[in-house]
Every structure is written in C-alpha cells, then in structure tokens.
Amino acid sequence: MSTQIIHCPNCGSYAHRRHLPQLQIVETACPVCDYLLVSCGKTGKVVESYIANMRGKESSPASRI
C-alpha cells in the first residue's frame, strides 16, 4: 500500500490517495469535505463515490450529480 497527499478535487484541501495493489483499488478521501472516490486501479472505473456537501449544496451521493 502506498499513500499520497493530494489536493481534494472537490474542496481543494489536502486529501489522501491510497493505492491498494493487492485489491487493485485506488481510494481518494478528504477529511474536510467528506469526499470519497474508490476506483479500480487497473481500469480506472469508479467502484464507489460519495460527496457529503458538494460546494454548499445539500448532501447527496455523487451518483445523483
């Protein structure tokens, strides 16, 4: 497993990107805005996503955006 510190694509704060090669998963999570993106490390397809508060809008799963 390796971890990177990146800027959150939602709010711009520091977020964590973890590469889990044994599961072929990449997880990006922001503790500030509760952003979560889990994608396949091989294909890049989204496995799971969630944005608790997208730039001031009401809470909604990313799949509805």
Write up what this structure looks like.
- By secondary structure, the chain is mostly beta strands.
- It is built from no helices and five strands.
- The chain has a five-stranded antiparallel beta sheet, with no helix packed on it.
- Strand 4 (36-40) and strand 5 form a beta hairpin.
- The radius of gyration is 12 Å and the shape is globular.
- The model is unreliable at 56-65 (pLDDT under 50).
Defining traits:
65 residues, 5 strands, mainly beta, single chain
Q: Largest beta sheet: what is the strand line-up?
A: 1-2-3-4-5
Tally of separate helices: 0
> Termini distance?
30 Å
* Average pLDDT for all residues: 85
Count of beta strands: 5
**Element order: H for helix, E for strand:** EEEEE
Globally, the shape reads: globular
Which residues form runs of ≥5 with pLDDT under 50? Answer: 56-65
Oligomer: single chain
Which structural class fits the helix and strand makeup? mainly beta
Characterize the largest beta sheet: strand count, sense, and whether it forms a barrel: 5 strands, antiparallel
Radius of gyration: 12 Å
* Percentage beta strand: 35-45%
User: Helicity, in percent?
Assistant: under 10%
Number of domains: 1
Annotate the secondary structure layout.
Layout: E1 2-7, E2 14-20, E3 25-29, E4 36-40, E5 46-50
Antiparallel strand pairs: 1-2, 2-3, 3-4, 4-5
What would a concise description of this structure say?
The protein is mostly beta strands and 65 residues long. The chain has strands at 2-7, 14-20, 25-29, 36-40, 46-50.
